Amino acid sequence: MPVLLFMLIVFLGDAAICPARQSPSPVRRFVMAIGANHGGPERMELRYAVSDARAFSEVLLEMGGVLPEDLIILAEPDRRALFAEFGSLQKMVTLARDDRDKVEVIIYYSGHSDQNHLLFKKDSFSYRELRQQIDRLAADVMIAILDSCASGAITRIRGGVKRPPFLFDSAFDMKGRAFITSSSADEVAQESDQIKASFFTHNLVSGLRGAADLNQDGKITLNEAYQYAFHETLHQTRETLRGPQHPNYNIEMTGTGDVIITDVRKSSSLIVFSEEVMGRLFIYDQRENLVVELNKPAGRPIEIGLPPGVYRISNIRGEKLYAVEIDLVEDASLQIVPEMLLSRERTPARTRGDQDLSTGEVEPEMTVIPFRLSLIDLPLADHRQIRLRFAVSLVLTSAAELDGVASSSGATLFYGLARGWQISSAFNKSGSLRGVQISGGANFSVEQAQGGQIAGAFNYAGALKGVQISSVFNIVDKEMRGIQISAGANLAETLSGVQISSGINISGNLAWGLQLGTINLCRETNGVQVGVVNIADTVKGTQLGVINVARRNEGGSFGVLNISGNGFLKARFEIDEIGFSNAGISHGNRNLFSSYFFGHNLVSGQQSAGMGLGTMLSIGGALDLSVEAVARSVYRRRRLFRESGLLSSLRATLTYELLPSLELFASASYNFFHNLGNPGITIPKPFHRAYFIENQRYKHWLGLAAGLQANLAGSSKRDLRNKTE
Question: What's the pLDDT band for 21 if we cut at 50, 70, 90?
Fold first, then answer.
């Protein structure tokens, strides 16, 4: 039998360690991404061709099943380098065919071109040469994506025929070639400073991250990606100076089905827009780069795969603008519902010659004032077109935006973004804040704040990532990530951080962190509450206080009195092996309970008092097993604070339910006694005298105890098991 078990372990371990040998992946995908900003001395240098190639590569690494060793990125190559890499790619593909059912290759190019060539800094590479290199690759599926001017001309080489879009089919037999181009044969491909990418690649990547998932199966096919990029690119370029840009395609494939390019649910983290969210959506990363853009109809959810990080989401619905900042964590799915998107005031706008329609926010017509010194700035209409750098006023400073420092002995008022410092003796207000507000009265950030709010009275923020400090109260209407400190009260809807108050702390959901105050209130806590009174609807973390109250406790509560809807309050009496008769109470829940003891020894005349902490494990039926750590002071009558010793025990107790409110228990324990330097304090030897070791200062032994306990409040043991399970 041991031999068979060993062979089974070896077999399973080998299968777990070497899955590739047992069931190789049916598809291996290679990608060559080429970016060239330089197209020769006669052409204007592009800004985003190389970064487009990297953005396309990243989405395939994250969600396209491409291994890092199967990715080739070429930045500013010449003919020699391109031929060399095609040779390397051909060898990789040939080797891969030996152990894979199917091999796919994707070639991506972003840069300059004309109707016959891809153009580099000093030379060129013809479309005919490109097709020849593609023909030499012995891949089952070959996809070429060209984002360059006049790239549609490649679809006419060697008599290619445009065919209808791919069929949506689960068959896995599509083979051949596909050519996707960002423009037709006589059009220019356009890029945008606003989105920091080309229109076509920006929309293609957005589609591959999930925006193109029309049938909501979590997989983006080549057809879905192309259709999305086509419509979005055409929509966004229809009013540019260069005119509308029409992506093109040519298909030379056989079979049914479609090629899956990305699997959104393989992303390390997901943003899920609920069915109720609608309108134009823009997702910006922490560097304010627009990474995904989509137009979402109501009635169906959309999943977007992105790497972990901090993102800002803007939503345009009709004439209104909404926004929220999120922190996307690894291996998590974050759902966005309309209530999370906070209303934001839109500033007046002007149209430039080469207007960028991709972001939905046209550049505001702002007058920048480097320095202003005034008695009072009245909040007139023209102030909504002013951005201040440095301003000082006696009564009021008012403008649309701040990008520096504003100070007033009265108030500072900004309708939009305040980036920098707002300092006043009475009142500071901003639409949103990235900096610090300091006031002797109050601070307001209507939408969200990143930084700090320090006030003599109170602070308010729609959402906060930073610090609030006040003498009266702090309020965060939505999500709070950081620290709230006040003498009166702190309030946050969702808290990931710390609330500290000498009064009361209130949080709808303590995602993680700490509430430290006299009274702590929370709907659900996954963190720690420390206070005189802690109250929560659901506890999944820890409560430390004098009184702890929870409707449902799935974590632990440490206190003098722990009240839980799924907990208990028990009175017990026991006799132990050294002659102590102990009475006590236990309260808490099965995860964590507290006990308090008082004992008297009829032989020695000594008393004991102490407490314990334990946890309960269900064995089955009417039996439970609890493990408990107990510390008791042993003393002579009326000498508790003058002469005492310490008795510490680790107990395992088996409990049997005789009746719904009466239980019989027996305990086995390891005990250690130390006289704490009081030689007159000792304890009787256990009746069994086994495993008893002693000297002048300490004793330790194995002990036994037995007794009864009554359920005074809460459910019976069987009910508690059912509630917990």
Answer: very low
Q: Which CATH class is domain 267-344?
A: mainly beta
As its CATH architecture, domain 24-263 has 3-Layer(aba) Sandwich (3.40)
Q: Which residues contact 254 (CB under 8 A, 6 or more apart)?
A: 174, 175, 176
- What's the CA gap between 44 and 557, in Å, rounded? 68
Protein fold of 568-724: Porin (2.40.160)
User: Considering only CA atoms, which of 163, 162, 181, 168 is closest in space to residue 260?
Assistant: 168
Q: State yes or no: pLDDT of 33 exceeds 90.
A: yes
Q: Determine the pLDDT at residue 75.
A: 93
The residue that leads in pLDDT, 719 or 493, is 493
By the 8 A CB rule, do 708 and 663 touch? yes
Distances 194 to 92, 145, 552 between C-alpha atoms, Å: 38, 23, 51
Please, what's the b/e burial string for 257-296 (b: 16 or more CB within 10 A of its CB; e: otherwise)?
A: bbbbbbbbeebebbbbbbeebbbbbbbbeeeeebbbbbeb
Record the pTM: 0.49
CB atoms within 10 A of CB 142: 22
707-723 burial by CB neighbour count: b if 16+ within 10 A, else e?
Answer: bebebeebbbbeebbee
Cβ atoms of 709 and 598 within 8 Å: the answer is no
Mean pLDDT of 599-603: 88
- pLDDT of 241 reads 60
Are residues 453 and 445 in contact, defined by beta-carbon separation less than 8 angstroms?
yes
Asked if the model's pLDDT at residue 92 lies above 80, the reply is: yes
Q: Which helix (H) or strand (E) holds 233?
A: helix 222-237
Mean pLDDT of the 49-65 span: 93
